[in-house]
Amino acid sequence: MKLLLIVMAAFGGVLSITYDSDVFDKLDIQRIVESNVKRREAFNCLMDRGPCEKYQHIKEKCPEMVKTDCVKCSPSQKVKYQELMKKLELEHNAEYREIIAKFRS
């Protein structure tokens, strides 16, 4: 019985480790991806090619999210992440490949 409680507590603790919902859940990914200017600014920030003033929160979370395929994400965050990655892969493939190469290597 004690072992079961320990396992449940450990499992519950792992599940509770998600990305900051205030930042990621409220982020309008669609607006960023659809705007060439905003997408380029965010991309340059991620790739260390430009300033990150507006996108620092993305730069702090994105590398781990891409590297682990969003393993720490809540279900809603995972859906948002998958939609973003699919959209980048289909519509902005060169940027998608650079992000994958940088953070999954």
From TrEMBL:
InterPro entries: A10/PebIII (IPR005055), OS_D_A10/PebIII_sf (IPR036682). Residues 1-16 form the signal peptide. Keywords: Signal. Pfam families: OS-D. Gene3D superfamilies: Insect odorant-binding protein A10/Ejaculatory bulb-specific protein 3. Transmembrane segments: none annotated. It comes from the Eukaryota. This is Uncharacterized protein. The lineage of its organism: Eukaryota, Metazoa, Ecdysozoa, Arthropoda, Hexapoda.
